[in-house]
UniProtKB/TrEMBL annotation:
Domain CBS: 347-407
Segments crossing the lipid bilayer: none
InterPro entries, alphabetized: CBS_dom (IPR000644), CBS_dom_sf (IPR046342), Mg_transptr_MgtE_intracell_dom (IPR006668), MgtE_N_sf (IPR038076), MgtE_transporter (IPR006669), PRC-brl_dom (IPR027275), PRC_barrel-like_sf (IPR011033), SH3_actinomycetes (IPR058838)
Pfam families in the cross-refs: CBS (PF00571), MgtE_N (PF03448), PRC (PF05239), SH3_actinomycetes (PF26205)
Region (Disordered): 400-431
Xref: PANTHER family: MAGNESIUM TRANSPORTER MGTE
Protein name per Swiss-Prot or TrEMBL: CBS domain-containing protein
Keywords: CBS domain
Organism: Sphaerisporangium flaviroseum
Length: 431
């Protein structure tokens, strides 16, 4: 059976009882001078975002939509040895040669030999610049034997990342961010350069501050400003607060004034207050808008569930800071009303807004008291200036390094490590 490794990215991993324990993020191989690479196993991501190693010898079945393992899986965090390579993260997009012609690696195929070991046997490539040898059209995809390909061991200045990103195309930004964290600095920079501004902005929002700054510092100033503009204003403000003031001001100066204005406003609030946590782009409509218009707004794909949970009603202008704040209409109420009803008639007048200077513990108590996922923030002039969502609060309640921590994942059958090195903790896979 021949399996192309890039297609395995994101595939669910199950134990024989049918319980999903994670998803495949990469394939670990060892490069050998004169023989095809040997497949050691799979990198599996288990919750909460911990990468562990599943030996290929414990994989019982590989299907298009599932990988089933037997025995047990070690839950210690995966660390790649110097002699190992990540097939998806490091080998895709390499420029290699077939018969003296430069080609780009699209994918790798692994097969199980007669002795039971898995080997990388085929390389899917895309023709690059014209050259000697293959005598085929440029842009053609070829499947070559591993033995016919040279150049995998060379260090390349600019590897590109199109095919790696194709393998992670369907993943959430948080999962792609976690994948980036486990790549070498050079590869991480190549992936960041290949992402469009919106996708990179989404990924940066899910990274620890140190990694955000590292990626941003490798971008030229114009690109960095464009990416900041694509981020949610509250996340952009948080990132700028961690930069030297001169660098932050220079980046703000390169942003369009209308995009920089909400970020500058957020930077005036203390970090652990409602103003410092809030988003300045909640869903706001005037009272004469209809329920149908409100539902259309919260159906937009680019807003989060917490932001979409309510529509804030204010007098024009409806961009923050708005005109006089009138109240909030919860999406459940919107679903119960006729579409032609005016939004002003669906306002919940029992919920008072909070002020920008309300500290974190006050915001937390407010959301808990009223069972809300977001709270309107109104200034002393009665204008809506933003909304604090539950994910903003969690970001500030969790330890600063929570995105970098390897917490012990939940699940039955986990035992602590008995000795240093490669011994378990493990989850029993049965069989």
């Amino acid at each position: 059976m021949r399996i192309f490794v890039a297609r395995l990215a994101g595939t669910p991993v199950f134990d024989p009882a049918g319980d999903q324990i994670g998803r495949i993020r990469d394939i670990v191989v060892s490069m050998r001078p004169n023989d095809p690479p040997r497949v050691h196993g799979l990198v599996v991501e288990v919750q909460p975002r911990r990468r562990v190693f599943l030996p290929i010898t414990r994989v019982r079945n590989i299907e298009a939509d599932a990988v089933i393992f037997t025995g047990s899986i070690n839950l210690r965090r995966f660390e790649k040895h110097a002699s190992e390579s990540l097939a998806i993260g490091e080998l895709l997009d390499l420029t290699v040669e077939i018969a003296d012609e430069k080609v780009t690696v699209l994918d790798l195929a692994m097969e199980q030999g007669r002795t039971g070991e898995w080997l990388i046997t085929k390389v899917a490539v895309l023709r690059g610049a014209p050259g000697r040898g293959l005598r085929r059209r440029r842009g053609e995809t070829l499947i070559a034997d591993w033995s016919d390909v040279t150049g995998f061991g060379s260090v390349q200045k600019d590897q590109g990342a199109a095919n790696l990103l194709a393998a992670f195309e369907e993943t959430r930004p948080a999962d792609l961010a976690n994948a980036l964290r486990h790549l070498p600095d050079k590869r991480r920079a190549e992936v960041a350069a290949a992402l469009d501004d919106d996708r990179l902005a989404d990924v940066l929002e899910e990274l620890p501050e140190r990694d955000q700054i590292g990626i941003l510092s490798r971008l030229d100033a114009e690109r960095a400003a464009d990416v900041l503009a694509a981020m949610d204003p509250d996340d952009a403000a948080d990132l700028l607060q961690d930069l030297p003031s001169a660098q932050a001001e220079a980046l703000l100066g390169r942003m369009e004034p209308r995009e920089a204005a909400p970020v500058r406003r957020l930077l005036t609030y203390a970090e652990n207050t409602a103003g410092g946590m809030m988003t300045s782009e909640p869903v706001v409509l005037p009272p004469h808008a209809t329920i149908a218009e409100a539902l259309a707004e919260i159906r937009r794909q680019n807003i989060t569930p917490a932001v979409a949970a309510q529509v804030y009603v204010a007098r024009p202008p409806i961009q923050t800071p708005t005109g006089k704040y009138l109240g909030v209409a919860h999406f459940q109420r919107l679903l119960r009303e006729p579409p032609s009803t005016l939004l002003g008639g669906a306002i919940d007048s029992s919920i008072d807004p909070i002020r920008p200077d309300l500290p974190l513990h006050g915001v937390t108590s407010y959301l808990a008291t009223y069972n809300l996922v977001a709270a309107p923030v109104v200034d002393e002039m009665g204008r809506l200036v933003g909304a604090v969502t539950v994910d903003d609060v969690l970001d500030h309640l969790l330890p600063p390094d929570w995105r970098e921590r390897d917490e012990q994942p939940p699940g039955a059958g986990i035992s602590p490590p008995s000795t240093p090195g490669s011994g378990p903790p493990e989850v029993n896979g049965g069989g």
